[in-house]
Here is the input.
Amino acid sequence: ATVLVTGANGFIAAHCVAHLLQANFKVVGTVRSSAKAAAVLQMHFNHPNLRLEIVPDVTTESCFNAAVKGCDAVLHLAAPFGYAYKDFEEELLLPSINGTLAICEAASQEESVQRVVLTSSFASVYDASSGLNPEKTYTEEDWCPLTYEDGKNAAITPVAYRASKVLAEKTAWDFVEERNPKWDLVTLCPGMVFGALLPGTIESLEHLNTSNAIVWSLIDAKSVPDTKAPIWTSATALAAAHTSALVTAAASGERFLVTNGTYDFQELADIIHASSDTPVNIKMRVPKGESGRRLAESHYKVDNRKGLKALALEEPSLESTVIPLIKQLAELETIT
Ligand code: NDP
Here is the structure.
């Protein structure tokens, strides 16, 4: 079978492409430029089952129509995730929402497409207005209440980002409800995604993706910072979950929280100091804080049982996820 993966050069999508190729799928990836297409081909050692298509602007009508030709399924990951945006409507809401609409339209015009898997987010589940709320356990039934206006007029970028994710996911579910396409929809809602990058994903730390930058922000921090979004997901477990979401018949029409647990900055600092694999010069740059102090009892939880069961979600440890990342980024720092 052939799978279209949008935003194939991104951190998570790169892992998804690798996982699909290993599972013998043919992959068509979309990227925004020919330079990125060349980088993605190289990342996967010019795999014979990988082909790239250039889609410079995901908000234009019919932009995915050529790329989706002959594909049996779609993983839609191309969407902005960052905290440095100024125009929230132009830079976050429109690419996220209209990109999702464009992929739904393209899938509907191609007879062969049977399933669309949308990479949504815990951001689309979480209600920040209820605060840390230690009594609360989030499930797939929960929805972030933010509206388009909330996103457009947000005071801070994370609010606009969360609005972009929930509105994109609702766009896809509304499309399915209103248009009743031949394909079915699965949405995946990961927490902060951590993990080593596929070699070649970025050239320097300047381009480090937003979630891994959270881990790296401990390096040279004066003290252990407060934790803002304390739910994490392993990049490799998430890639495997995307493949499961494609091949699992019972996933049809379902929404899944794909999360591996809670974390906080103190726990990350403790892991970095405790691991014999952490380079010594990195340990010296990470604050020790109050070793052993945990936030977990004072904030909300996430129930990931649905995905564990239906998608056979993998459960790697936080240590085995972040230490290889730290080592990789430390090397990248010295060579660039
Ligand atoms: P990356 O920043 O590594 O990748 C994002 C991808 O989306 C890149 O291919 C990028 O292309 C593309 N993209 C970004 N903005 C636009 C735009 N305006 N128009 C078209 N394409 C765009 O991020 P991740 O791999 O972390 O994220 C991938 C997906 O997963 C996103 O949908 C994100 O919301 C979602 N997600 C991520 C989480 C995380 O913790 N990382 C958690 C939950 C969900 P280019 O390189 O050309 O900019």
Residues 7, 9-13, 32, 36, 58, 77-81, 95, 119, 121, 165, 190, 192-193, 209, 211 surround NDP (CB under 6 Å). The mean pLDDT is 96.
